Structures are given as structure tokens and as C-alpha cells.
Amino acid sequence: MLENHPDAELHDLPAQGLPVGQLADVLAPSLFGAHRLVVVTGVHEAAGALVEALTGYTKDPDPDLTLVIVHSGGKRNEALVKAFTAAGAAVDDCPRISSVGDRIGFVRNEVRSVGGRITPDAASALVEAIGADLRQLSSAATQLVSDFGGTVDADAVARFHRGQAEVTGFTVAERVLVGDRQGSLEMLRWALQRGVAHVLIADAIADGVRTAARVSSVRSSNPGDLARTLKMPPWKVKRAQSQARGWSIDGLQQAIGVAAELNADVKGAAASADYALERAIRRIVTIRRETGRGVRG
């Protein structure tokens, strides 16, 4: 779909309960000019106002944006699919995957598609751990091959699942600071699913950005000197030095502003704290890429 835009900015939105204003915000022209992929899932559950907004978009689509809607079948909101088809949208019919055996087969295919292989017990363990969410199964399959090499066994799945269960706000912040957009968004989803509070994730991101800025503002690169000057533990200085690589001072100052906005958003200023976190992560990673010192995230 996006072979010509490997760095496309992804927005994944469930239609049920999605405010029209939030959709409009995502579909608005990007300030950074990057191509965007917007996926609206479950449009068969979309409210009437959202259906109208999506239908209206087909009349004047943005050439720098790819919009995908996912409909589970049936008559409800079928007219929306017809409107997209009439506007020239491609239709990809996907067979329903409902049984455990189907999901195990799906995992095997996903692993194979990225050049790996997974043992039968590992595929079963992964489906048991994650359940029926195909997006998470696909993401986990890809990550397992990346983390553990060509062959994935049950032990690798167990270690992967333990690691995901330990995700915290600081894990999310670490991926954000090093410019790993996909990894940070994945960690964010895992953290939210495990009940990590929005405000804790926002605080961790803000702390990471501020600490990287403080370390970068001091001329010395000696961790001991920095620890004494900044009154920080040496381990925290070393971590901040690693995370600050690729950042400019101007970029970190902009990121601090984004983190401050995020703090207000997760405390009630935004309609959706989940969306506020995702948007802030994308903005910070983009700032690093656009203003960094010769390093692309």
C-alpha cells in the first residue's frame, strides 16, 4: 500500500465513539508534509455524523494521505463502503478469521512473510497469550522474528510476553527519545492495555525530554562531572546521554513544549487521552527527525 512512503505517519482509530473533531484533526493537512496513513477500524459501528464526515472526505481527498476504512461485513453502514468504492477506492476482501486454528495459521503466515519460521507450540502460545486481535498478533509475530532471529520457539514467546508485561511509562519514553516511532507506539499500546495510567506515561516522556535537554546543555561529556553538576545519579546521566544523541538543543526545546501540552491533555484538556499520547509521540519523533544533528529516527 505504502511502498513509496516507508516513513508514513500512522494513525489507527477505532470508529466506535470516535469524535468527528478528532477525525478532522487527523485528516487535516500535515504541517510537516509527510505522507500519512489513517486507518479507521470498525466503521460498521460508526455513528451517523462520523459516516457523513468520512463520506464527505471522499469528495476532496488529500493526495498526501491514504485513508483506509475497515468494515466487518453486514448491512450496517454498508453505504459508506459503497461511497468509497464509487470514489475509486480499492477494496480488499479479507476472509473472516474466527477459530483458534485460523489464528495460529495467521501467525505462521505473518512470521513467514518476514522471513522467519515459528514452531507449532510457539504459535499456539502466542495466540493464547494475545487472543483474537489480529493487529497485535501480526505486530508480535514481526517483533519476535526481529528480536529472536529466524526461528521462534515457545521459550522466545514466553520471554517476549514477560517483557511486554513489564512495559512502563519509562519504556515508552525511552523509545520516543531515540526516535523509534513504531516501537514507541507499540510500547504505548501495551502499556495502556496493562493499565499504566496516562499521566504516568506523560510524566515519563516529559522527564526524559527534560533530562536529555539538561545533559545536552552542559559542555562536559564526562558522566561523573555531569552527575555532580546536575545533581543526578550517574546511571541516569549515562541513559540521558544515550537518549540525547541525534537531538539538537532547539529540537529538545520544542519537545519540552509538546510534553507540556501533553501534560495538560492527559489531565482533561483533550477529549481522548489515548489519542493525545499518540499524537505527542508522533510529534516528538518528527521533531527529532526534522531538527536532529544528522540522525534520522
UniProtKB/TrEMBL annotation:
| Catalytic activity entry | DNA(n) + a 2'-deoxyribonucleoside 5'-triphosphate = DNA(n+1) + diphosphate
The family this protein is said to belong to: Belongs to the DNA polymerase HolA subunit family.
Q: For this UniProt entry, which segments traverse the membrane? A: none
Name of a matching Pfam family: DNA_pol3_delta_C
Q: What is its EC number?
A: 2.7.7.7
Kind of enzyme, top EC level?
Answer: transferase
Q: What is this protein called?
A: DNA-directed DNA polymerase
Alphabetized GO MF terms: DNA binding; DNA-directed DNA polymerase activity
Positions the record marks as coiled coil are none
Q: Which InterPro entries match?
A: DNA_pol3_clamp-load_cplx_C, DNA_pol3_delta-like_C, DNA_polIII_delta, P-loop_NTPase
